[in-house]
Structure formats: structure tokens, C-alpha cells
Design a protein that fits this description.
- The complex is a heterodimer of chains A (386) and B (116).
- Chain A has 386 residues and is an alpha/beta fold.
- Chain A has a domain of 132 residues: 3-Layer(aba) Sandwich (Peroxisomal Thiolase, Chain A, domain 1), CATH 3.40.47.
- Helices cover 36% and strands 18% of the residues of chain A.
- With 116 residues, chain B is mainly beta.
- Chain B has one domain.
- Chain B has no helices and eight strands.
- The radius of gyration of chain B is 16 Å and the shape is globular.
- The relative contact order of chain B is 0.20.
- The chains are: A alpha/beta (386), B mainly beta (116).
- Strand 5 of chain A pairs antiparallel with strand 4 of chain B, so a sheet runs across the interface.
- The structure holds zinc ion.
- The site of zinc ion has 8 residues of chain B, from loops.
């Protein structure tokens, strides 16, 4: 396999982007990445479009074919990649494999979702269809209800308190204030989070990410050609992907995110790195408990010690392992198909030293975790400065 | 007559599943027999859901994950006011919601009272 580099990246602002449709978001993010990669005049071999639910949300299908036409990248190969909330991670992985294998030389990966024009109830239902149909969905399960039951177990077994949950939100909102692309640009307080409205006991409104519109994109090429395009390419040092049982209740230990453990282990093995080598991480905090649980199952902290690390400031912007400097899904926002790509975009900026006020000093190795379904399909990537 | 919940026991390796899978999660066997899960289970975790899906009449919606003595777990709606992790519950068949125009039936779990 060849080494693969990210030579360009870009994203739209995340938020309630009125007047912008899905295709406009995908185009805007793509053009930013292509320009950033100095590949404006180049033909691409393939385009991977990460998207969760264009058919259901925007009544458009075949969006990858539509996008290559818009971008004048015909006759490039074009595919939509759907892996629920981990669509972005999966699309990056597909692009990586296509270049690593030698099948393609220049590949565009773009993720996007247009959501805010649709009623929250309908979105909740579309997302709920990720759950197991006969033993979860039919009983009235929504993603927040699964997360709530997970949160209750986690609090019971792993020393997580309401205060810890609030601390994740406070940290990530504070980081987002330093990220001009973030959806939620306001600080929150511990008390504000702890008193926010109950969605699914013990899950409160401010434990959850917002519904957002947005797009994000990267350009990939063989690492040995990267310097022809970019002064500061970033290598994809490793990826890992793993799946777990569809029904959450079938998992051996319901507080262990086994797919996060396996995906991370595989990514670290491929990169020949250890969790302790990572300088900055983007985790999939669609719900705040997930940041704590993933920080443990990815291998950064021992099981049950994630909350303590958070409390000690280890995961803060100036801590030993800053987590979600972008604001995470919690505050940067979560346009579902865009999220996994946006995590990588943030890490590329961090590794290039272009993250402004949220820059993690001297970052050389970065990790991200994109979490599909309720942890039944997880993609992890490790990036490094070249 | 009260029906009982059933799980699916692999003929090859005896692993119990709920729900059914096309192939056994342990040995990839494809032949299963239905086994009754019993009339008593224990609550592992639960939530009170305030943001309700359509067709659900219970406000808030109580959802929980239970474990049967044979180790099989299941998710379902809960009945009762004083819900606590660890409490004994039993599965009861009945209408659980409407989906579109259709009434959906299934098992929900309610507090288990020992016969006096
Ligand atoms: Zn078997």
C-alpha cells in the first residue's frame, strides 16, 4: 500500500444556513478543499460523497453524480457513502484505500447534510431508524433514549456525575467560541447545563448536539506527490473500522463501546503509534457522555478515568490531550454526513498550525473517532504531520 | 392466556439470541429453536423520554433494558411509577403504540409482584 496524504481541506460554516441547499453546501466545501490543495485545474479520479439522508431530508438521490457534474469533474468515479453518523469517516476511509491501493491518484472526499429546514420530530424519527427495527425502534426508541440509558449505566458504574456531563459541554462550547466555523457560538455554564430541560432522563438538552447544516471536504493524493500540491501535507497514518451488535442490549458489557476499542486499536497498529503519542483528538460527542466514554475506549484513559481526566483539565485546550478543540459535535454542530470529514479538516488545520486561537501548540499526531448508529459502526483515523 | 417472550437458541452452540439473527453470533449456525425467556426479569437501566415519537401515548415514555435469568436482555417500554434499577419486572403483552394507522403490539415490562 502507498502512503496517502491530505493536500487540501475546507468546510462551510456549520449552522442554520438558510437559503443554502445540500448541493450548494457540498459544492462550497469541495471548492474550498480543491483550491486549498492547489488542484483547481486538475482532473480527479474519484469523488466520495458522505451523506446520511439526502433522500429523506432533501428529496434528492444520486447526489454524488450530481456533484461531479456541478464541479466539472466528469467523468470521475463518484459514489455516495452512507454509514449513518459515521458516513464522513467511511468516505475518508474509502478515499484513503483508493489512493493507497494505487487504483486512484487524486481523490476528493466531501461530506454534507442539510437538516435545519425539517421539523425536529421528523429528524428524530429519521435518525431513530438507525436503531434495530423489531427490538428497539418499534418500542419508541430514539437515539437520545439509547444514550440516556447508556448515560445512567455509565454514571452508576464509572464515576460520572451530572457535573462531569456539564463540564464536557462547557469545555466544548468554550472551544467553539474560538472556531469561526462553529454552529453554537455561545458560552454555557455548569449550572446552565445542569438546569437545562430534560430530554430523556438523565439526558438534558445541553448534553446533546444541535441539528445543523454544513459541508466539509478534503483532497487526497499519494504521499510522494503531496509536495507538488502543498507545503504542509498531512499523512493519513492509520485508520480502523469496527462494527458491533445492532441491538444495544445484546452487547456483552453495555458500557463498553467495543467498536470504538477495536477501530482505535486497528488505527494505532497501522500507524505504529500509541494513544500516548496523540497530541490532539476530535471525538464524536453527539451526546456529552460519548466524549468521556470514547476517551476511555479509544485508549487515552483507563475505563472509569475519563471523567477524572476531564475534571483535571487534561482534555482542555491547554491540557495534555486537548479533545474537541473545534467545539466537537456538541458546539461546532452535527450536519450528519459532514461530521466525520469536518473532524479530519479540524485535525489537518491543527497539524498545519492554522487553527488560530484554538491551536494546540506543536501538534504532530492527531486522532479522530466517528461514531455511527449507537456505536455499532465506528471509524477512527490517525493523522500526522509530514 | 399470557404469551411469553421467546429467544432464539442456536442448535449448534446453544447461544441464546434476542432478536433472531440470520446466523448465530458465535458459531454462524443457521438453525435455531425458540425458547421461552421466562416471566421474570431484572431492570438494568432505564430512561424517561420526554421528546416522544409519534404514536406513543405514554408521557413521558418509560423505556428500559431488562435481563432474564438466562442472561438474555431485551429493551422495552416500562409500566409503573416507582422505577428503580435492579427491580424485578415481568413481560406483559399488549398494544405498545401506533405506527401510521397501525396498532403495534409487543411486550412491555411491569413490576413483578410475588404471589402472596
Ligand atoms: Zn451458535
Amino acid at each position: 500500500m502507498r502512503d496517502v496524504a491530505i493536500i487540501g481541506c475546507g468546510m462551510t460554516k456549520f449552522g442554520r444556513l438558510e437559503g443554502k441547499g445540500l448541493m450548494e453546501l457540498l459544492v462550497e466545501a469541495s471548492l474550498k478543499a480543491i483550491d486549498d490543495g492547489g488542484a483547481g485545474d486538475r482532473d480527479f479520479d474519484a469523488v466520495y460523497v458522505a451523506n446520511f439522508a439526502a433522500g429523506e431530508l432533501t428529496h434528492q438521490t444520486g447526489i454524488a453524480s450530481s456533484l461531479v457534474d456541478q464541479l466539472s469533474l466528469l467523468p470521475a468515479a463518484a459514489d455516495r457513502v452512507e454509514n449513518g453518523p459515521a458516513s464522513g469517516g467511511s468516505a475518508i476511509k474509502n478515499g484513503f484505500l483508493a489512493v493507497a491501493s494505487g487504483a486512484h491518484d487524486l481523490v476528493l472526499v466531501v461530506g454534507g447534510e442539510k437538516m435545519t429546514h425539517v421539523d425536529t420530530d421528523i429528524i428524530t424519527d429519521i435518525v431513530a431508524t438507525l436503531s434495530q427495527p423489531e427490538t428497539e425502534y418499534v418500542h419508541g426508541v430514539t437515539l437520545p433514549s439509547l444514550v440516556a440509558m447508556f448515560t445512567r449505566l455509565y454514571m452508576q458504574h464509572h464515576g460520572v456525575t451530572e457535573r462531569h456531563l456539564a463540564m464536557v459541554a462547557v469545555k466544548n462550547h468554550a472551544n467553539a467560541l474560538k472556531n469561526p466555523y462553529a454552529h453554537l457560538q455561545k458560552a454555557v455554564t455548569i449550572e446552565g447545563v445542569m438546569n437545562s430541560v430534560m430530554i430523556a432522563d438523565p439526558l438534558r438538552l445541553y448534553h446533546c448536539c444541535p441539528i445543523s447544516d454544513g459541508g466539509a471536504s478534503v483532497v487526497l493524493c499519494p504521499a510522494d506527490e503531496a509536495k507538488n500540491y502543498s507545503d504542509a501535507p498531512v499523512r493519513i497514518a492509520g485508520f480502523g473500522q469496527a462494527t458491533d451488535t445492532h441491538a444495544v442490549h445484546e452487547r456483552e458489557n453495555p458500557t463498553v463501546l467495543k467498536a470504538v476499542q477495536l477501530a482505535s486499536k486497528r488505527a494505532f497498529e497501522m500507524a505504529k503509534l500509541m494513544p500516548g503519542d496523540i497530541n490532539v483528538a476530535e471525538l464524536h460527542d453527539a451526546f456529552v457522555i460519548l466524549e468521556i466514554a470514547q476517551s476511555e475506549d479509544a485508549g487515552f484513559f483507563r475505563k472509569g478515568e475519563g471523567a477524572k481526566a476531564l475534571e483535571e483539565g487534561k482534555t482542555a485546550l491547554d491540557g495534555e490531550l486537548p479533545i474537541n478543540p473545534s467545539g466537537g459535535l456538541k458546539a461546532r454542530g452535527h450536519p450528519i454526513g459532514a461530521t466525520g470529514v469536518a473532524q479530519v479538516v479540524e485535525l489537518v488545520w491543527q497539524l498545519r498550525g492554522e487553527s488560530g486561537k484554538r491551536q494546540v501548540k506543536g501538534a504532530e499526531h492527531a486522532y479522530c473517532c466517528n461514531f455511527g448508529g449507537f456505536g455499532n459502526n465506528v471509524v477512527a483515523h490517525i493523522l500526522e504531520r509530514m | 392466556m399470557q404469551e411469553l417472550m421467546v429467544g432464539f437458541k442456536c442448535k449448534g452452540c446453544s447461544m441464546l439470541h434476542y432478536p433472531r439473527h440470520a446466523r448465530c453470533l458465535r458459531c454462524k449456525g443457521t438453525v435455531f429453536e425458540e425458547v421461552e425467556l421466562g416471566d421474570e426479569c431484572k431492570l438494568l437501566t432505564y430512561t424517561k423520554l420526554y421528546a416522544l415519537p409519534e404514536g406513543i401515548e405514554m408521557t413521558p415514555l418509560l423505556l428500559g433494558i431488562v435481563e432474564f435469568p438466562n442472561g438474555v436482555r431485551a429493551l422495552g417500554q416500562l409500566k409503573g411509577d416507582d422505577i428503580k434499577v435492579g427491580m424485578r419486572l415481568r413481560p406483559i403483552w399488549g398494544k405498545i403504540r401506533k405506527l401510521g394507522e397501525k396498532d403495534i403490539y409487543g411486550f412491555r415490562f411491569e413490576p413483578f409482584y410475588s404471589p402472596q
